[in-house]
Amino acid sequence: MKKNRFRLRVITRWVASGFLLLFLNTVYAQQDVIPLKTILDSLETRHNIIFSYADEQVNNKSAVFPNQSFDLDESLSLLESNTGLSFEKLNDRYIVVRGNSINTICGYLHDKVSGEPIEFAIIMNTNSGESEISGIDGYFNLSLKSSEVSILITHISYSDTLLANFDAAHCHDIFLTPTISELEEVYVSNYLVKGLDKKTFGEYRINTKELQVLPGLSEPDVLHMMQVLPGIQSPLESVSDLNIRGGTNDQNLILWDGIRMFQSGHFFGLITAFNPYFTEEVNLVKNGSSAIYGEAISGILDIRSTEEVTSNFSGGGGVNWLSGDLHMNIPISPDASLSVAGRRSVADLIRTPTYRNYYTRVFSNSDVSATASEKKEDFQFYDVSGKLDWEFDEKNKLSFSLIRIVNDLTFGEEGIVNGEEVIRESRLTQQSLGLGMNYSRNWSQRLTSNLKAYFSSYRLHSLNNDITNNQRLIQENDVLDIGVQFDLESKINEQVRLTSGIQIEETGIVNLEDINNPDFRRRVKNVLIRYVGYSELSVFANESKTNLRMGIRTAYFDQLEQLITEPRLSFRHEITPFISFELKGEYKNQTTSQIIDLQTDFLGVEKRRWVLANNSDIPVMKGRQASLGFHYLKNKLLINCEGYYKIGMGIITSGQAFQNQFERVRSKGNYRTYGSEFLLSKQFDKFSFWGSYSLAWNWFDFPLLDPGSFPNNLDVRHNISIGNRLMINQFEISSGVAWHSGVPYTPYDPMMPISDGDIQYLTPNGKRLSNYLRMDLSAKYCFKLGDRATGQVGLSLWNLSDYSNIIRLYYQVDAEGGITRSEQSGLKFTPNGMIRFNI
Q1: Which residues, listed in sequence order, are joined to residue 339 by a DSSP beta bridge?
Q2: Nearest-CA neighbor of 669 among 617, 626, 625, 624?
Q3: What would the pLDDT profile of 456-502 be if each residue is shown by its tens digit?
Q4: Per-residue buried b or exposed e for 8-17, using 16+ beta carbons within 10 Å of the residue's own CB
Q5: Residue 83 belongs to what H/E stretch?
Q6: Which of 534, 532, 535, 450 is nearest to 498 (CA)?
């Protein structure tokens, strides 16, 4: 009751302030004594201050109204002499009114995650009704008129805290838990930078609308951004080759609004294919994943668009040196809204330095760069996203999602065949289409159901015309994936939640090769149906200081006649308000993967093709992982260290991109990786700093090869990322350094380089390339354009020092029977600028 009166007073006080002044001047001008509460309200308006008091302290008290010429101190002195109360200034804005209490208690309120002080919290003695509010430094001093003390602390952003048997002899540091609207929510916000948070069970959440500028990126790119986290890297500088704790990119599960995606990049891997201005958030899981997720033995990237029905039109657009985009949120009715976005490359209009550097990086050492000198190329990419959200009522919500991604390269060759000039056109197209539906219903406050269905298709098509050999080669890789999922979420109580569900998924993959000279055609189609059931228990105990999630997922693969069970575990416990530890583990399996038959497949650009497990030459991959981590967070200083052990079983050599003695060998094996990850972050008011370091050992085990054990192609032993950000008014600048030890490669035998036309190699992955080093810089300025419109201009500089990084090295036999050394370089110094407008 006291708390409600306090909140009502805060809300109405400022609205009525103007009328109070007029009322006092006209009604009480001739009176000597008036109610104290009226005087305090008037002084709050006159001096822009706030009084904190219990109602019973001022009720039935009157005083002489201070003269208009009095300053604040003179007015308070007059009131003290009139009422017998004391007025204590906490700071320039807050004043505590104290009565003749028999005791006082004091303390300092802090956010238990960040350690920052908490203001505007209500501190109340539930036995007698006295109340107080905390000041800007979190301090409170509560006067008591009762010897029985039971303190209740409430705040709109924090969970209620009850302190019984409060020790009034000392001022205490009291830590409040941030309120969670759902059981599973963020417990570390702004993990490295604003927009990157860590959730209760160890998942990372990236909020693209809040994400700050990062080194080397003029605009948000979530798949690039993830690489500042330890354990996540791309030695080839490609978002299509994102490696999480030693796993290959095809071992990651990528979802967009619940739709499984088989393509993640534009410009054949250098740009994330998911429009950042349509994306609401991205959830990243390295270990301890929910039982809801399957079909991946490495990481999980769950990308989601907005789920809110908007009532106001908003939109924006922009252009950078690679593409332009538009996005809009359109209200259709009070219960429905439509969100649309599109992005398209600008290379057909202007060839910027950014485009030329990207083009060289992607198409070097491929058929595109090896064509005749006189050629004409045309490259474009675009993506389209859309979503319809419809809230029937408070209990029912329905949404439909659509995404379309296209990369299209065409180039022509001119040559002389039989004395005649011949022109041939080659083409490479990569495209994806995804459709999704999600219906959720709240049956009660404790029971929610979700029904999801999706359709996903992926197509990689190449047409390679070889003028010299008069040959035409067509290659296709088509994937069709459809699924339906139903689950129930039951909140047993405020601390326990149970989620159970079923999934039915069907995946079909077609691989085609068609050659005209000699005449050859091969088309292979495989289909696999998965029936999945899962159940998961989440426990939030000890005021959310102890969190446990246990899950189990069971999948039956129809065509393989195989049943697999996958247990999952994620446990977090706070040892102190600043120190916690995490224990996570999981079993996972995967039936889809990518392989490379020949390095020249698909023009040598997108060489990987999707295939399905068949339990013969392509087994079901199995992943096992365990990790233990410790976290320290206080006063915006974050220190994190984590160790892990991970095994991937059932991999095949053709899925590892070998370019040595094992390139044409197909054999089954495993990889094992173990290591430690360290992260340090410190945030100040306008400046923040972060650094991450990964130490890892990654090995192949192929029993039928000689040798059977050797370093993984992704064995990057040391990886360091350092960055900082400075915010001055509307200007942001961020710089960073990325360094890692060189990736392994296989040298040839100098004593016998070639035998029977084949290169004679030494120990596989026996040497390493030079260390990788890159320095990046980004800057952005935000400005207003009227009441609603805003604008941004930005500039990024990738590889500021123009350091020459060799990211891949291999050898080939040339036309004369000798050995050619082939190197692939990383991006050189690459600038990129952008300008954006939003309403």
Answers
A1: 329, 387
A2: 617
A3: 999 999 999 888 778 899 999 999 999 999 999 999 988 899 999 99
A4: eeeeebeeee
A5: helix 72-83
A6: 535
